[in-house]
Amino acid sequence: MLIQRGILAHADKNLLYVDEVNLLPDEIVDAILDAAAQGMYTVRRGGVAATYRSRFALIGSMNPEEGRLRPQILDRFGLRLLVHGLADPAERLEAYRRVRAYLTSPRSTVGAYADQTIAARDEIQSARDLLPKVTLTSAAEQLGLELVRQLGVESLRAEITLFEAARAYAAADGRTDSTRDDVRAVAPMTVRLRRSQFMTDYFSAQQVEEKEIQRLLGKLSPPGRPASSKAPARRNGRKRK
User: Fold this and answer.
1) Tell me, what CATH number does 184's domain have?
2) Which of 80, 83, 84 is nearest to 191 (CA)?
3) Do residues 93 and 18 share a domain?
4) Could you give the CA distance from residue 100 to residue 239 in angstroms, rounded to a whole number?
5) Exposed/middle/buried for residue 209 (C-beta within 10 Å: 0-12, 13-18, 19+)
6) 146 lies in which domain range?
7) Which element (helix H / strand E) includes 40?
8) Are residues 135 and 167 in the same domain?
9) Rounded to a whole number, what is the largest CA-CA distance in the chain?
């Protein structure tokens, strides 16, 4: 039996784009989560197995009206954008014209935007080359930490994504110092949708239970009171037969 490389293998060192990501079956979501966490995945078909590398940047789109994302996969999206429909009639008309042009002649449409595509590619590559040299200022770190704290976000991915996005933003601007302004620019995309009302309610309930446990412990065994270790007194003399 021959096992062919699947989508996750083809996405290695590339992008994995999922449309309507909130409608994926659970088994596919689990496969994506495993690959994203481990950087590889294993396929088994009967007695045959194969392991492939799968290191990718996950991109997804969804309509919130059609259902929510599972928290596990939502946490894997570093940047979260709210996309609204075009309001300007001229922009909507231009969008239609571009779609029509692509449907009529895909190759010529791609060629018409080739210069812009190459310019964007070169700009991204320059930012990637500069990124290892970019460092966060202390003021930027403090702003990010305080923002996450006051929002009450539990996940450490909030700071990780916030600071890495701020560094990338500075690199795209050709700078090696990432400042408070960079943190401010990327913060809405990185900390949005990271608060969980369920977890807030869960921890509140646990605090109530914790207080009850401590109350009972204080009642049954007050602090500082040693446990009784007094042994039963022995009678003097011999035991009676």
Assistant:
1) 1.10.8.80
2) 80
3) no
4) 109
5) exposed
6) 89-191
7) strand 40-45
8) yes
9) 114
* 216 within domain boundaries: no
Amino acid, single-letter form, for residue 23: L
Q: Which residues pair with 53 in a beta bridge?
A: 40
**Interval 193-216 mean pLDDT:** 81
Asked whether the beta carbons of 19 and 61 are under 8 A apart, the reply is: yes
Say yes or no: 70 and 99 in one domain. Answer: no
- Which residues, in sequence order, are CB contacts of 2 under 8 Å at separation 6+? none
Model-level pTM?
0.75
> Do 68 and 124 share a domain, yes or no?
no
Q: How far apart are CA 125 and CA 146, in angstroms?
A: 32
Domain count for the chain: 2
pLDDT class of 4 with cuts at 50, 70, 90:
confident
The 10s digit of each residue's pLDDT in 96-130 is: 999 999 999 999 999 999 999 999 999 999 999 99
Q: How far apart are CA 14 and CA 21, in angstroms?
A: 18
In whole angstroms, what is the distance from residue 208 CA to residue 76 CA?
31
Q: What is the distance between the alpha carbons of residues 179 and 234, in angstroms, rounded to a whole number? A: 77
Residues noted as catalytic: 157
Helix (H, G, I), strand (E, B) or coil at 106: helix
Instruction: Provide the phi-psi class of 82: left if phi over 0, else alpha when psi is between -120 and 50, else beta.
Output: beta
Phi, psi of 135, deg, nearest 5: -125, 150
Same domain flag for 47 and 104: no
> What are the tens digits of pLDDT across the range 168-179?
999 999 999 999
Q: How many helices (H) and strands (E) does the chain have?
A: 10, 6
Query: 96 and 60 share a domain?
Result: no
